[in-house]
Amino acid sequence: MKKALITGVTGQDGSFLAEFLLEKGYEVHGIIRRSSSYNQERLEDLLTEEEANALLNNSNFHLHYGDVTDATNMINIVNQVQPDEIYNLAAQSHVRVSFDMPAYTLDVDGKGTLNILEAVRILGLTEKTRVYQASTSELFGKVQEVPQKETTPFYPRSPYGVAKIYGFWITKNYRESYNMFAVNGILFNHESERRGETFVTRKITLAAARIAQGKQKKLMLGNLDSLRDWGYAKDYVECMWMILQHDKPEDFVIATGEMHSVREFVDLAFRHTGIQIEWVGTGVDEKGINKATGKVIVEVDPKFFRPAEVEQLLGDPTKSKSLLGWNPTKTPFEELVRIMVNADMKKVETEEKVKRMFD
Fold first, then answer.
1. List 138, 191, 193, 258, catalytic entry
2. What pLDDT digit, counting tens, does each position of 147-169 carry?
3. Which residue intervals of the chain are DSSP H helices?
4. What span, in angstroms and rounded, lies between the C-alpha atoms of 276 and 268?
5. Where in this chain does the record put each NAD(P)-binding domain (predicted)?
6. Is 138 a catalytic site residue?
7. Which of 112, 133, 145, 190 is the most exposed place for a label (fewest CB within 10 A)?
8. What is the CATH number of domain 3-191+230-258?
9. What's this model's pTM, rounded to 2 decimal places?
């Protein structure tokens, strides 16, 4: 039985990956940070009750208290687990927040990666343990070519992107310096019903559900013209695993090869709730109007614009398809939006039922 260690197991990608690896017959170890409340609650909030019970009650799933910013702690956990594979998914991954917390973002996303690689090296596990580093399309930032592939020059436009560049290059450096199987998966935007509510896609689907059920009046957004390559996180964790099963350590772009605007995402989300949007105005004055009622339900708020905007990101998944046999469009864009909206419609309905119980 292979052993896998996942940092960031309480996040969107970590939870999907844990489920995926358990189905593959792995013994899975996840790292959670110590807090005043028992942090498995983060998983219970993220998953449905059935999913949470299946994961937390699995005898091959184990949780450890730790933090990637603590080098000694990482050495102790890696030594205890002796993993065959490490998936470093821990990150301060909110791009806008990284402008407010640049030093913290660097500690987690940059030095945290170094601490994991050093733990493997110090413990003499360079031949046993394969390391996957979750990299990001934000490395490309101010894009130098379209689409972006493994050889496209980097030009990050946020503290998050800059911190992740350190993580990318230190992973590559340890691969070349110590002959480690250490690789980067350059993931483009990947979303799901488990996405955090402050991320734009989940913010949109949750607002669409609440507006459709009369629980919210408006959705405030930033740049509606931003173009992104959006895929389904559940599909992307499979590609992470494929990268570590490859016969040699290489870096891969993980993307769909399709690009859509924030405005298009909004359109689809509301359409799935039965609301048709009509757009009027331009720039910061643009508004989305409910065609049936004439009410403004979407507006632009400049406070959601980034100090340095990334206008478009489009990945080239050719290498992942040809060398790994991965299917980047297993879940089409419209199906992804539908999955997220349906989950949030149920969430809002459940919240209302609970509220009525206590009224």
1. 138
2. 999 999 999 999 999 999 999 99
3. 12-23, 40-46, 49-56, 71-81, 95-100, 102-106, 112-122, 159-178, 200-212, 233-245, 262-272, 318-319, 333-358
4. 9
5. 5-340
6. yes
7. 145
8. 3.40.50.720
9. 0.93
